[in-house]
Write a structure and sequence with these properties.
two-stranded antiparallel sheet, single chain, signal, alpha+beta, 3 helices
């Protein structure tokens, strides 16, 4: 896959996410959605968008659990525009530009699905500062069919999580945990968006539970 092809794929993905795919797109879309979800007018649209007809939630809500002691001891410490966080040691990253601005996209060595673009991996996308620079209201997102809640992130004045277990956008037979975390730095006021696809079940829950506490706004 060429560098140009990779960059284009990331841009298309995040653009598709912005209008809300009912199939649950997160960090890598290959095509624009045929029918935008009813929540597409929201400034903050999670990957697990509500259905276009009646705005019923798509996917099973996923709550943030307690981190596992020592789970991140071997994770790599990194940052995007002075926002620090930790990523599993065997994940690889690259600079990208998407709908939320410049940032980094990180991929696991594990393959989630394969499609016409090749092998697609589990991933986390970081965009800081997030172009909109506004925090979403969980109450408003929940009215639109999302699964949103406030969470605690050390160093943040405010943080919001949306997460659900749903179908992978590229293969409905593969389940994923789609998530987004919006974090506003208490010291700078900058809003950062983290989002991605994680494997469904215990593995994805483990990654989500341990990744979020490592964020350092």
């Amino acid at each position: 896959m060429t560098r140009t092809h990779t960059k284009a794929r990331s841009i298309v993905l995040t653009a598709a996410l912005a209008v809300g795919l009912t199939a649950g797109a997160t960090a890598t879309a290959t095509a624009s959605p045929a029918t935008p979800a009813c929540s597409a007018t929201s400034a903050h649209v999670p990957g697990h968008a509500a259905g276009p007809a009646d705005c019923d939630p798509v996917g099973i809500p996923v709550d943030l659990g307690e981190p596992t002691d020592g789970a991140t001891d071997t994770w790599q410490i990194t940052e995007t525009n002075d926002v620090g966080y930790a990523i599993p040691a065997d994940w690889t990253g690259r600079a990208i530009v998407g709908d939320g601005g410049a940032g980094h996209e990180w991929e696991s060595p594990e393959i989630a699905v394969s499609d016409e673009y090749g092998d697609l991996h589990w991933r986390i996308l970081v965009q800081s500062p997030f172009y909109d620079q506004e925090m979403p209201d969980p109450k408003e997102l929940n009215k639109l069919g999302y699964h949103a809640s406030y969470i605690e992130v050390e160093g943040a004045s405010e943080a919001v999580l949306t997460a659900a277990q749903t179908e992978h956008w590229a293969d409905g037979a593969v389940e994923t945990i789609d998530f987004q975390v919006y974090v506003q730095s208490a010291s700078t006021g900058v809003v950062t968006r983290f989002m991605g696809e994680l494997p469904a079940g215990a593995e994805g829950q483990f990654l989500l539970d341990n990744f979020v506490p490592t964020i350092q706004p």
